[in-house]
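During the reporting period the student researcher (J.K.) took over the structure-prediction task from the postdoctoral fellow and processed the backlog of single-chain submissions. One of the processed entries is reproduced below for the supervisory committee.
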Amino acid sequence: MRRAVTTVAIASSVVMAGYFQATAAEEDAFASTEARESYAMGSLIGQQIGKDAPELDAKSFLDGMGAALGQGEARLSEQEIAETLAAYEARQIAAAKQRFEEQALQNAEVGSAFRTEFGQKEDVVTLNSGVQYQVIQGGAGNKPGPDADVVVHYSGRLIDGTEFDSSYSRNEPARFPVSRVIPGWTEILQEMPVGAKWTVVVPPELAYGERGAAPMIAPNATLVFDIELLEIS
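J.K. obtained the following structure tokens:
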């Protein structure tokens, strides 16, 4: 809650500037400039807090704000306010954890079904680890070892097709040690000869696992990559 109010304080001057460009007819809707400014500030606070706490009771919220501004009687002591907010925060954390766990379970099930279907294609190879690949373009060069540095072009997407990263879009290949990427990449790169381009499906336990990689990669997400091994450097 305190973070939201801080954001309000920083942004309010910018937002209120837009309000001051209203017509004379709109100005008449408020008893004073202060009333208009107060309304603008209240609207902004509501927008900020409402995103994280849509279940708040507006009347009680305004009563509490009025009391804090010296325009109403306080119905809770400072100690009671602290205890109430602590309980609220704990409830929100528990709810977020439950949503996270439900999403992780759903992603695991959907990803497993996707990998099963993908693995049934005739030209798909499934390694013992669960990593799968499909050759798009063969290669005739050497294969990198675990201590090698490689240069690759790649794109990464979720199983629904949403792209979360791409060296192609940056028009610049990536350079990195084979040992310093997700485990699924470390394994598959050592199987690829230079010049090869494969579509690679990585199960979550060899990608970002139960934690995911916010904001794009959810917990237990199966990932799909197009990887082109350009050179071993």
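The committee noted the following: The chain is about 45% helix and 20% strand.
J.K. will present the remaining backlog at the next meeting.
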